[in-house]
Specification:
By secondary structure, the chain is α+β, with helices and mostly antiparallel strands. 22% of the residues lie in helices and 32% in strands.
Length: 128
């Protein structure tokens, strides 16, 4: 098993230099698990921020040969749980297949005061 940490140059860069965006655990057969750090995005509304988050997640996964269809777990942090339906509507635009395991939490505040949503995922990448 080999572990690597990175912030792929082909994806939006992290807002802080103090964390890596992706941890890749490579198995001997060439398959891998990707642990993607929580992502936030700019936007005036929860829908705009959610769309930006999923666009960033798509880019981070693509940099590691994966896609949203490979996501097996998703954790979502909302600053207002009553907005769950608005978040879910955008999420369903991006996660179109069998839904991954999921947890959603309400958080009093996130990494940036303007952030309304933060999402982290785990993806399983099959051997090539």
């Amino acid at each position: 098993m080999q572990i690597s940490l990175d912030s792929p140059a082909s994806a939006p860069q992290p807002l802080s230099p103090y964390y890596s965006q992706v941890a890749r655990i490579e198995h001997p057969d060439g398959s891998a698990l990707l642990f993607v750090s929580g992502q936030i995005a700019e936007g005036a509304t929860l829908a705009e921020q959610t769309r930006g988050v999923f666009e960033t997640l798509t880019a981070l996964l693509k940099a590691h040969g994966a896609g949203l269809a490979d996501v097996v777990n998703i954790r979502t942090y909302l600053t207002d749980i009553s907005e769950l339906d608005a978040y879910g509507a955008v999420r369903r635009e991006f996660l179109t297949g069998t839904p991954p395991t999921s947890m959603t939490f309400e958080a009093a505040r996130l990494f940036r005061p303007e952030a309304l949503v933060e999402v982290e995922v785990v993806a399983a990448v099959p051997a090539r």
